[in-house]
Model the fold of this input.
Amino acid sequence: MTSRIVLTYEDYAALPHDGKRYELHEGELSPMGAPSARHQLIIGNLYFILRVHVVATGRGQLFLSPFDCIMSDITVVQPDLVYVDETRRRLISERALEGAPTLAVEILSPWSRHIDRRVKMTLYARHAVDWYWIVDGDARTIDAYRLEGDGYRLNARLEGTAPRALPPFLDLPLAPAAIWP
Done:
């Protein structure tokens, strides 16, 4: 029987800067594929919409990937978008977010579907991320999941053409036409 090597944040931080992106999932190094142009357009649109709102309301901070969320010494993730409300602002350090964000947003890519829907959903729940949005550009949907107990429950969905607010931004109706390229 072989023993598994568990990597730590120190190992992760010491990785060579080879132009590739990685995450650390429970001590296992997970390479990340390059995002597509469509992925980047969607995340750019969402970032702009949410950033204007967060700045205007003065509630929290919004970060665009790559930005490390050090969930534990053996779990470091880089969600596409990270929202940190005022109650967690103290977790922001010079190097990263040192704990769980209020909201993690992932844009599905062909290579990331399983990781985002299974692996990351489990990791985010285990580390108490209150809200998790999965953005599906092909289906033109955003599913907003709320942490309940040790797992997520679908709380709201943006689909179709009608604007809809998604938690935790209940005072911000999102217009689908402004999100999808």
